[in-house]
Amino acid sequence: AELRSRLRSLRHADGRRAVVLYGAWAGGEGGAGEGGAGEGGAEGAVRTSLGGPTVAFNVVRHDGSVVGYAEVGKLAALHRPPIQLRTGCCCNPGGCQALLGLSEADVLDAVRAGKQCGDERDVLGGRPTGVVRASLGKDSSWEDVDALLSFLHETFVLRPAERTSSADAADAEADPRPAAPCRVLELFVHPLKSCGGMRVRRWPLDPLSGRLLYDREWGLAGPSGTLLRSTAHPRLALLRPELDLAAGLLTVSAPGLATLTLSLPLEEKQVHSRVAPRAARSPSSSPEE
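Above: the chain sequence. Below: its structure as tokens.
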């Protein structure tokens, strides 16, 4: 109840709520969600009088737009101390659809737009495709709640001093003068998630999502089958994958280790892919994920 109460109290400088709650903790304010930008709410959703130790919510900017759950989750993980939040549909797509008030047509539109389970397409058409979920357990403390609320307030809540700056920025965006042309100076593809990248001049785009084709398509699993990530295994950055689209080969090299070459079936996606713009030449630099 304390977490729910403090989340509801988060407001921007203009008085608008910065958080929308869902489910039992949302209270009786319109459907399964509280009412507000982008959350919808399913008519007739079942709501209990008292929620459990888990609170589902989304963050809303001062202009009413939704902050995607992937952005919230990543920034929380970078916070000090790190905050672990579960995000997305939490392995319950049907319940997620009901909470967010998504119709069958909305779900089909999301699939056509390239939405997949576990991806980071967290906002489509201005509406969230998932939620942020904070859970408390027997070992949780008041300090844990304080850390989460401090993170949300410092990162997403518009304070009075920032309101003027935000208005000035909006005026600048409304400037009718054309923006200066932009050029892509360097282009990197990361076939293996959390590993080093390969510098390319041209590269196809995925026909569904529009992202670089095969970028972070594969990963390395540990003995337990869990995907290895650079946050826990920083030496993964030493692995250098090279993907040969024409030959269907993925070659992985690393200092002091034998080169590994894998044959991959790449033809299906490439048939319908389109090519990303050519990158202009620039001085060499280290690739970043």
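The chain has a mean pLDDT of 80.
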